[in-house]
């Protein structure tokens, strides 16, 4: 989300996470109810001069912290 502050991206990711967790997921082909699906998310804010790879790495580290925290949550990069 170009230009968005970290707090905004975390809020948006959290709203998406909650919406997914509250959805009744069904298979399109059969209509069979799959049940609850949850996600974990890691977000980071671009630092001026940072490479794209470094930004993705910080997001990835935040994602792994979310998974280690019990999953189904959103964690922001803390560096």
UniProtKB/TrEMBL annotation:
NCBIfam families reported for this sequence: GGDEF
Domain GGDEF positions: 1-79
Enzyme class per UniProt: transferase
Domain of life of the organism encoding this protein: Bacteria
PROSITE patterns per the UniProt record, alphabetical: GGDEF
Protein name: diguanylate cyclase
Pfam families, per the entry: GGDEF
EC number: 2.7.7.65
InterPro entries in UniProt: Diguanylate_Cyclase, GGDEF_dom, Nucleotide_cyclase, Rev_trsase/Diguanyl_cyclase
